[in-house]
């Protein structure tokens, strides 16, 4: 054992010194069975010490990585580690450290491979529906306004508001886009974001932007952060930043409506459009402001990889998350918050892995911010995806090989190929039966688009199960393989809201603290696991010597 311990301690000292540009050499420690056996035993002890947190959740936070399938998570994990100068394979994204995990089946009622509207509806209402539909049951017909009435679904947003909780949504897409819209909207077509996208015979229905500001539960959202100003502004309005017109044909200015509606209710509200205007809510708190709408782009917000470091034009997902929690925490009954890393999906649709991985790392940072701003004693945090993408991890690249780099060379055509590729999409480069030559190309560039097998205008989603990561009260109820519609049922049960509001009356308002109540959502966690191994090794070496 002494030799194994010495090797582990040596690895801990040497590992931080590895640079990304250096070829990774497998350490002697990893070649020793002792290294892996002792690591496995330490992880086993972590699991044995884990005790479910059965308290009532005061706060609920759900992070949705749009398109964040398992291949995306794996690649982002390696990308993060390599950006920090390490080999990357043994890295962890913040939410991968959560103590409870499950998988969800993402199919919609109508499709084997779903879209984001149907999956978001499942995630937020607890009911599956047809692809393309937002917040309505599968009885509603796509693009049929009249079929909406009587088939509207209530969401966890409504359940939280009925329980007196503050509510908010944060996204990097338009706030009327498919995922956030499923929280507050009811539409037979996800593209009905403004009246400009609606058919003339749909005059009885409201577009999603109107539903957000005019109707419940949208109008009672304390926080609305994201992009999509154009859906709220008339075509006669010129956006001062984008220098483009609004999208609305009905002449309505819904931002102005939102402001006046709050004035009529005699509540303090603020509309903001820049990172600088958001800053006070991050650093000083909301003060007396109760409602904040931040629309930070004319369309979707910028990719993190495209933001200029010397010009803070738009806030990061982390900053929006921190500000949202600061605002919502004023409510002593707790809050519900949805945070979407929405542009992961957009990058994948373009076969653009670099931007997708960057967006995933950005969302992981936002998860860290939420963990730091709350306590696992009373806050359930769930991280999941709505669906996956046809991203593949190819070849047999060696440890430490750049995840955005070349995996190898094909003996069939003598051309190299990248580790990350897609099954389909627009980045199709076959000419006369021959692949393109990647020699001299910067495959790690944000503007490099990975090769595909089947040419399509846009890369598609994929249908495999997606992961669920959870920490906090009742997180242990996420287990095995579940329907995607199961997710809000657990969250509602944890907080005693919606169909599960009688839960608290049966068990009492609060249960005693459990072993999980340590503020991190885990009993031991990665650091304690590391400390356990190191302490054992040091003790053994000391006893051997003396």
From TrEMBL:
One of its GO terms (molecular function) is metal ion binding. The active site is at residue 116. Mg(2+) binds at residues 66, 177, 179, 340. Zn(2+) 1 binds at residue 349. Binds 1 Mg(2+) ion. Binds 2 Zn(2+) ions. Its cofactor is Mg(2+); Zn(2+). PROSITE patterns: ALKALINE_PHOSPHATASE (PS00123). It is a lipid-anchor; GPI-anchor. It is found in: Cell membrane. Residues 1-23 form the signal peptide. Gene3D superfamilies: Alkaline Phosphatase, subunit A. It comes from the Eukaryota. Keywords: Cell membrane, Glycoprotein, GPI-anchor, Hydrolase, Lipoprotein, Magnesium, Membrane, Metal-binding, Phosphoprotein, Signal, Transmembrane, Transmembrane helix, Zinc. Zn(2+) 2 binds at residues 66, 345, 386-387, 461. The chain crosses the membrane at residues 524-543. Its EC number is 3.1.3.1. It catalyses: a phosphate monoester + H2O = an alcohol + phosphate. PANTHER family: ALKALINE PHOSPHATASE. Belongs to the alkaline phosphatase family. This is Alkaline phosphatase. It comes from Oedothorax gibbosus.
